[in-house]
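Tokens as discussed.
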């Protein structure tokens, strides 16, 4: 009898433990962000919030460059981007970029220090293209980034590669899984969808390709409505990523009384709409095309280059670096035509 009581107690303890694994350890606070009765609340945990604050501090800006002087393109060789900056402005930005991306390797991460004009290192070509990308984001996509803007640090945070990045997942059949094709979902421990059983690669469909993001049809059954439950699950997977990547609830962009209705949604939903399209353009126009010049160890299982998603910039907070005014210290990144990949690959 004693052993059976012990067994029952042990099973009960295990059951309680499993139940609590789905709960977040207190304290948990809720801030009302919408009309009462709609459930529009932002749930925050001060314990985890403190960690996010420490991870999202903007770097100290360098002193402004001395005004005047010759242009960089007239002094240095092979300046394909930023040539219209003065030498002082150009060098200030190079020092900042080194701290943002390669504080340990220094200039040697992108340059042959015996010949700075040489394009022998692929990282220099990538940096050139990423500079064009940053200028395009700041100039073209103010509908998402506003006047706050971004710099290399917004994504890199002092590392060669951003912490949050993604590769296209290989097909389940190609991967040779024991159970065969998993239909792109039901995989345990997938951070992309907050450890849910939803499709584990929403990025390729929505942040590289432009498949429709929708969970309800615009017409009634039986004709015209092609939004299946499976399609809805893919949309939910992307929404889970966005919620987790920004550290917000669904109510940050949606009114719970009418999730689909744009007229009843907060302004953030429009900002997010532009953000999705911005990320899609960045991945297609500025990042994917650089895969051929990358070494194999920087490529994913399908041979693609790592790309960006919402979490790359946001890293758990609704505004990257809590809305720090990045362009105020680096107006030279405020805008530009962006150029072409071919121009970034030019070697002299």
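Sequence:
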């Amino acid at each position: 009898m004693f052993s059976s009581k012990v067994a029952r107690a042990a099973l009960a303890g295990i059951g309680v433990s499993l139940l609590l694994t789905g709960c977040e350890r207190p304290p948990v606070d809720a801030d009302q962000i919408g009309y009462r009765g709609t459930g529009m609340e932002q749930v925050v945990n001060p314990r985890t919030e403190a960690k996010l604050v420490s991870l999202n501090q903007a770097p100290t800006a360098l002193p402004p460059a001395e005004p005047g002087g010759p242009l960089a393109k007239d002094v240095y060789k092979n300046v394909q981007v930023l040539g219209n900056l003065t030498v002082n402005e150009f060098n200030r930005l190079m020092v900042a970029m080194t701290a943002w991306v390669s504080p340990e390797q220094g200039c040697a991460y992108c340059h042959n220090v015996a010949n700075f004009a040489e394009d022998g290192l692929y990282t220099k070509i990538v940096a050139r293209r990423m500079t064009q990308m940053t200028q395009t984001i700041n100039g073209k996509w103010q509908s998402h980034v506003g006047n706050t803007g971004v710099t290399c640090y917004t994504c890199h945070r002092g590392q060669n590669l951003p912490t949050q990045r993604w590769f296209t997942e290989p097909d389940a059949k190609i991967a040779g899984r024991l159970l065969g094709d998993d239909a792109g979902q039901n995989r345990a421990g997938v951070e992309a969808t907050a450890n849910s059983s939803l499709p584990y690669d929403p990025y390729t469909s929505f942040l590289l390709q432009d498949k429709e993001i929708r969970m309800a049809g615009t017409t009634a059954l039986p004709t015209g409505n092609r939004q299946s439950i499976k399609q809805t699950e893919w949309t939910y997977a992307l929404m889970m990523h966005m919620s987790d990547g920004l550290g917000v609830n669904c109510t940050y962009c949606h009114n719970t009384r009418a999730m689909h209705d744009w007229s009843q949604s907060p302004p953030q939903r429009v900002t997010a709409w532009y953000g999705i399209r911005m990320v899609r353009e960045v991945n297609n126009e500025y990042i994917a095309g650089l895969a051929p010049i990358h070494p194999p160890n920087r490529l994913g299982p399908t041979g693609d280059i790592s790309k960006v998603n919402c979490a790359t910039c946001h890293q758990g907070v609704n505004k990257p670096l809590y809305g720090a005014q990045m362009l105020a210290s680096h107006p030279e990144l405020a805008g530009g035509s962006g150029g072409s990949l071919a121009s970034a690959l030019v070697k002299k």
